Amino acid sequence: MSTQGQAMAFKLDAEPVDTQKPTVGRDVRETVGEVRVADPRVRCTDVNVHYGDKHAIKNISLDVGKGEVLAMIGPSGCGKSTFLRCLNRMNDTVRECRVTGEILLDGEDINASHIDVVPLRARVAMVFQKPNPFPKSIYENVAFGPRIHGLCNSKSDLDVVVESSLRKANLWDEVKDRLDDVGTGLSGGQQQRLCIARAIAIEPEVILMDEPCSALDPISTAKVEQLIEELRQQFSIVIVTHSMQQAARVSQRTAYFHMGDLIEVSETDRLFIKPRHQLTEDYITGRFG
Amino acid sequence: MTQTPVLLVLLLALASAAYYFGCKRAFRVADGRIRNLHSLPGYYGLYVALWAALPALLVLGVWLALQGSMITRMVVASLPEPIQQLGPDRLNLVINDIRNLVSGNIVSGEPDAPTLAAAEYYRSLLGTSRGLLFVVVLSVAGLGGWFGYSKIRPQHRARNGVERIVNGVLIACSTVAILTTVGIVLSVLFESIRFFQAVPITEFLFGLEWSPQIALRADQAGSSGAFGAVPLFAGTLLITLIAMTVAVPIGLMSAIYLSEYASAHVRAIAKPLLEVLAGIPTVVYGFFAALTVAPFIRDSGSILGLDVASESALAAGLVMGMMIIPFVSSLSDDVINSVPQSLRDGAYGMGATSSETIRRVIFPAALPGIVGAVLLAVSRAIGETMIVVMAAGLASNLTANPLEAVTTVTVQIVTLLVGDQEFDSPKTLAAFALGLVLFIVTLALNFVALYIVRKYREQYD
Amino acid sequence: MTNPTKASTEGASSFARVQAGMARRRAAERRFKLLGRAAVGIGLLFLAVLLTSIVSRGYTAFWQTEMRLDVVLVADEIDPEGTRLVDTLHKADYSALIKQSLRDMFPEVSSRRDRFALYGLVSNGAAFDLRDRVMADPSLIGTTVSLWVPADDDVDMLMKGHIDREGPEADRRIKDTTLGWIDQLEADGRLALRFNTAFFTKGDSRDPELAGIRGALMGTIFTLVVTLALSFPLGVAAAVYLEEFAPKNRWTDLIEVNINNLAAVPSIVFGLLGLAVFINVFGLPRSAPLLGGLVLTLMTLPTIIIASRAALKSVPPSIRDAALGIGASPMQATLFHVIPLALPGMLTGTIIGMAQALGETAPLLMIGMVAFIADVPQGVFDPATALPVQIYLWADSPERAFVERTSAAIMVLLAFLALMNLVAVLLRKRFERRW
Ligand SMILES: Nc1ncnc2c1ncn2[C@@H]1O[C@H](COP(=O)(O)OP(=O)(O)O)[C@@H](O)[C@H]1O
Ligand SMILES: [Mg+2]
């Protein structure tokens, strides 16, 4: 697997620097590091999530800054996806899921009773782990959002939006001659970029990405990562990833989750070079995960 | 007919005996030590028992199947010349009389001498046949048992032998389905070919007038009835169309509602209740259509100043649609549920509402499967019999007006074949020609529908 | 969200547009959901209307108006010689005695027409009831017995309120004089609604008050026994072969496609097959439950095979592997380990197939199980009809009283179906296994 190859490379790079010992032991589960930023787009305070009896997210507070890429890492099952899905209330679609705590988007509580999830999700769009283009043409896939939200008044407007979204997603050159082909006929990497194009066509403020590259080959992964870097100019991005190298490459800040707890949030360089929590250190040095 | 059970019991007894002696002999040849044997002793017993029972059963079955027609042929051959010269229809009546005499039923009128003689002959043949059957079956059983018995040696692979036989029986059972299809095709095909010798196939398929009753008076000059089936096809189509207009939107929308909106609680109650509609026998729907719906439609029509036939296509179609609702909804439910959750997530993740997700993502994705489901439902509606027999009537109108009475293919098959009829008249044969059309059309629809559904499933597996 | 603070002005405008469209979209959402609810509602409404219409028409059939007569069993009329021979008692003219008893109650009726109408108050079956009573106890001869006999169906309908007393006399099946007698009988306590045992114990009849479902029920039972005896072993054997032993080749593909298609062939076509092959080629007796059973076997076989295969498929391969691993042959593994585990599923499928066969009418019409048969069949070779066919026949009868009997027969049929489905559901619940 490609990620393993990268993991090797990363360790070799990291080892000479990684000398200082963390200051917080394994038994402490309070978040260390900087959960707050100066100019937050999203501000979460004491978020808890339960699936029935299962306490999946425990008292998490975290900010997402404007124009930043926040990476979330952690062993699988630790609640990264669950937390990500809180940010645009995708957990509403899960029957027995219960979310408490405060999540502010631009200062406004998205869980408040008067908030409608539809415009919320138009502001906080989501890209999933497995590419899931609709079984429609490439054009229709990208046009889906603008159409349902009524963002374009005319066909020519729509054409412009579709083209610019596909361009932003670095897909335009590959598909411009076959916009009427079905989206499911593209390669995995192209499908994922199509899904990203589909999300940016509605001009959200935040894009949530749940392991967007885990189903992709290294070349496609590189393209998506480059894309994320470009998109940061316009959107806040929260990305869940299994690959620490990916987190290191694309994000400004990284949050490390462990069994429902947020263990550490730091600037990405710092977290990987000088983790402040023993659990973080264990994870990034591959002692478990 | 009472001897068959007796024979069966005897065969069972023989087989049990064969089992017992087979086991015993297996012990003996093994000098009482089971490990000397290739298989467990029970298998040797079973082996002998199967050899005793199966060939005998086969002979019994074939004999019983052929006995009737053989005897009839011999009796007919013994009848005096003038009777044999009668046309097939009249001859059939004579044969019926003879059969009735033999079984002691009441016959129409006083039987004449040749008939009585023939009945006597019939009876004696039957007696001979039965005696012979007894002897033959029992000797076949004995021979088979002896053969199996003589094969028992320690090295004999009795288990493998038994398993081969069982496997053969299983294969035979699985070919029954094929035989059924072959039987259906042959029976409708042969009679249809005979029909098309009397009535040109083009007239049948494209003729605009259907009045088979005239054919009863065969001696009338030049009148052989009119066998143009277009009014029947049109009537069938009209009723099917009405039924689909009811069933497809309601079935589809309830499937969507129950799988995408309803709470688990509502679904647990509403779904089985809807499925009750599918379990109600069609004759009940027919009664309901004729007695409740048709008068209701006629009365409402007359309030609105419309002239509605008492056996309107609308009543039959409406009730048929009712019957098909659960069929459409459970098929669509399967189809909708097999649309992957990731597509729903994709749409919801960008802020689509439920209805937008359903209409713009799930429905297009499920469309092939839904089309397959609808085709299956259409085939169901075309072949449905009792509702139309009881509510649609016999008037062969060529009309597209749902308020008029029409007739359908299945109604005509029933009408032509129910009651006393001579088997060779074009009237009877016409029923088989209609049956052939019905079979071909429904088969084609099913074939296409199942193909579409299978392809659809594979797409998401 | 009243105060969106947005980063880019372009974004702000797009967000405003989303907000602007929300009212319309929410309305569309509500409409769509309402549509779905309406669809479910209409489906359930259909069911409710169907069932209420049947029950409300039919429940009265379980009661029958009977009339109490005091019949003088005149010895000279029944058995002038006093021999008490069974044959003599059997042949006596009991209807004359009944007529006499009616005349005794209404001595003022004299004209031929009126008398005829008076005799019409009781059913033709009354004489048979009287005969049975006398033959069971010949010592009654010479005495006066008081017995309840079924009233004519018109009287029954009047008592149940299905005939409008107020309508113009010419349109009424019961004229004013007759109405008077009935009122008087009722006032005397001689007319009463009593439980309709005849409905369950008698065969078909042209007189609604004498018609019962026993014959049809027995016909159905014989037919289903034949169907079950043939289709269960055949279906299970075929399923076992196809699922466990069959090689994957053209032939088994053909069988598979064929079974799936057969499951959707209209039932009436199976009737044609029965007529052309079983009657005309093999010469099986028309109208016999044996024949019906054969036809229904072929019809339900695909259902049973498909369900049995699903049951076999749900037995995990580990069971087979375990059996094979300790040296069982594939046949032994299947017979002794897989089939017992799959049996509940197979039985459920079979019950569902039987329920299908129970409600089936059309193919039985083709093979002559539609004749008027008053006798209760005694075996699978006797001419018989079946419960759904009986319903069809009664539904065609013009008498008003047959409408309620048809509905009542439907209620009985539905009760049997409900019972079978209940058993299937319970069986499935009881043996449902999560591997
Ligand atoms: N729909 C659900 N129902 C119940 N439990 C769930 C559901 N989804 C996730 N979980 C549980 O919540 C925990 C966190 O899951 P998730 O957020 O998917 O982890 P990650 O994405 O970090 O691998 C896991 O233990 C998982 O079992
Ligand atoms: Mg995850």
TrEMBL record, chain B:
Task: Spell out the subcellular localization from the entry.
Answer: Cell inner membrane; Cell membrane
Please give the InterPro entries that the UniProt record associates with this protein: MetI-like, MetI-like_sf, Phosphate_PstC, PstC_N
| Span of domain ABC transmembrane type-1 | 233-449
PROSITE patterns linked to this entry: ABC_TM1 (PS50928)
Q: Where are its TM segments located?
A: 6-23, 44-66, 131-149, 169-190, 232-252, 273-297, 309-328, 361-382, 429-453
A GO-annotated cellular component? plasma membrane
Q: What SUPFAM superfamilies does this protein's entry cite?
A: MetI-like
Q: Does the keyword Repeat apply?
A: no
Query: Which Pfam family, giving just one, matches this sequence?
Result: BPD_transp_1
Q: In which family does this protein belong, per the annotation? A: Belongs to the binding-protein-dependent transport system permease family. CysTW subfamily.
* Listed name of the protein: Phosphate transport system permease protein
> What lineage is on file?
Bacteria, Pseudomonadati, Pseudomonadota, Betaproteobacteria, Rhodocyclales
Automatic annotation (TrEMBL), chain C:
UniProt KW keywords: Cell membrane, Membrane, Transmembrane, Transmembrane helix, Transport
| CDD domains registered for this protein in UniProt | TM_PBP2
Q: Which Gene3D superfamilies match?
A: MetI-like
Membrane topology reported for the UniProt record: Multi-pass membrane protein
Q: Name one GO biological process term.
A: phosphate ion transmembrane transport
In terms of InterPro entries, this protein maps to: DUF3333, MetI-like, MetI-like_sf, Phosphate_PstA
Q: Which GO terms describe its molecular function?
A: phosphate transmembrane transporter activity
Compartments annotated for it: namely: Cell inner membrane; Cell membrane
SUPFAM superfamilies from the entry? Answer: MetI-like
Do you know which Pfam families this protein is assigned to? BPD_transp_1, DUF3333
Report the residue ranges that make up the ABC transmembrane type-1 domain in this protein: 217-424
The question of whether Transmembrane helix is a record keyword is answered with yes
Q: Which residues cross the membrane?
A: 34-55, 216-242, 262-284, 290-312, 333-358, 408-427
Q: Which terms in the GO cellular component ontology are assigned?
A: plasma membrane
Xref: PANTHER family: PHOSPHATE TRANSPORT SYSTEM PERMEASE PROTEIN PSTA (PTHR43470:SF5), PHOSPHATE TRANSPORT SYSTEM PERMEASE PROTEIN PSTA-RELATED (PTHR43470)
Name the family. Answer: Belongs to the binding-protein-dependent transport system permease family. CysTW subfamily.
The name of this protein is Phosphate transport system permease protein PstA
Give the originating organism. Answer: Denitromonas iodatirespirans
The primary gene name is pstA
